[in-house]
Amino acid sequence: MDIFSCIRKKGLPDVGVWNPWEKKSKAMVDFGDEEYKQMLCVNGAAVEKPITLKPGDEWTGRLELSVVPAS
Hints:
By secondary structure, the protein is mainly beta. The chain is flat and about 45 Å long. The strands form two sheets. Strands 1-4 form a two-stranded antiparallel sheet. It has one helix at residues 21-27; strands at 3-10, 14-18, 41-45, 62-69.
């Protein structure tokens, strides 16, 4: 079955994708040494233009990830 993922975000102009790979995964106590092979982390981010808040300012970001079967 094919699947598609959908990323919806607000206040987060960028998306970061990472994997801890072999060395870092072995240092993670809640992560099996070989689990990095089946893991991908997707985060909403503000990398290109970081968000800077002044005292008293507020900011909200939202990220929604969903995986749906292809029709």
